């Protein structure tokens, strides 16, 4: 079974991956699988542009967890969408040294439910669970994800309403 761990940058994917690794549950990062599909490096945005369709088409489904903000596009059996309230997300990204432009862009995408909407276009609802990390510890989030993967917790599509953050700086 393959589980995709996705979410807007700053929602906690890397932090959760580190917790799983420490617990002896290996996590593969999407970056490790994208090498052959990098088209160019966008120096201004410090990010690689990848051929997403070619990456998805070539992806050989694996056992375990794959982490990254595009992994919901993969043929995963389950998808965990991490969420974070836009103003808290902005604070996390600023602490990481992101430019203000990238902070606002990601906070807006989170307020718009952008990744969740994409996930719903690719996967049936029962494969998807949404976890709001705003007010909980990374350990708690990792516990919830483990329970969902084991089949001990039902999926949840409880979507927070962050529309008040739309169209304004956070
Ligand atoms: N419940 C939580 N789950 C995951 N990360 C959290 C949580 N609460 C706070 N954080 C913090 O949010 C930040 C998330 O950053 P990171 O894991 O790099 O996100 P991503 O990989 O999604 O870009 C970290 O500083 C982490 O400590």
From TrEMBL:
HAMAP family: Adenylate_kinase_AK6 (MF_00039)
Function: Broad-specificity nucleoside monophosphate (NMP) kinase that catalyzes the reversible transfer of the terminal phosphate group between nucleoside triphosphates and monophosphates. Has also ATPase activity. Involved in the late maturation steps of the 30S ribosomal particles, specifically 16S rRNA maturation. While NMP activity is not required for ribosome maturation, ATPase activity is. Associates transiently with small ribosomal subunit protein uS11. ATP hydrolysis breaks the interaction with uS11.
Matching InterPro entries: Adenyl_kinase_AK6 (IPR020618), P-loop_NTPase (IPR027417)
Alphabetic keyword roster: ATP-binding, Kinase, Nucleotide-binding, Ribosome biogenesis, rRNA processing, Transferase
Region ranges (LID): 95-105
Assembly information from the UniProt record: Interacts with uS11. Not a structural component of 40S pre-ribosomes, but transiently interacts with them by binding to uS11.
Binding site for ATP: 10, 12-15, 96
UniProt entry tagged with the keyword ATP-binding: yes
Annotated protein name in UniProt: Putative adenylate kinase
Family: Belongs to the adenylate kinase family. AK6 subfamily.
Entries under Pfam families matching the protein: AAA_18
One GO MF term: ATP binding
Transmembrane segments: none
Catalytic activity of the protein: ATP + H2O = ADP + phosphate + H(+); AMP + ATP = 2 ADP
Organism field: Methanogenium organophilum
One Gene Ontology biological process: rRNA processing
UniProt-listed SUPFAM superfamilies: P-loop containing nucleoside triphosphate hydrolases
Enzyme nomenclature, EC number: 2.7.4.3
């Amino acid at each position: 079974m393959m589980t995709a761990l996705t979410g807007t940058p700053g929602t906690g994917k890397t932090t959760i991956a580190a917790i799983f690794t420490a617990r002896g549950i290996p996590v593969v990062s999407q970056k490790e699988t994208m090498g052959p599909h990098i088209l160019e490096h966008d120096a201004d945005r410090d990010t690689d542009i990848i051929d997403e369709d070619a990456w998805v088409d070539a992806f050989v489904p694996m056992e375990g967890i794959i982490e990254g903000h595009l992994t919901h596009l993969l043929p995963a059996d389950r998808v965990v969408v991490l969420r974070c309230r836009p103003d808290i997300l902005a604070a996390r990204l600023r602490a990481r040294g992101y430019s203000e432009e990238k902070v606002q862009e990601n906070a807006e995408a989170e307020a718009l439910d952008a990744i969740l909407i994409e996930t719903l276009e690719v996967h049936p609802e029962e494969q998807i669970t949404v976890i709001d990390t705003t007010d909980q510890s990374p350990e708690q989030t990792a516990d919830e994800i483990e329970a969902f993967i084991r089949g001990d917790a039902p999926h949840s599509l409880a979507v927070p309403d962050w529309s008040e953050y739309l169209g304004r700086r956070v």
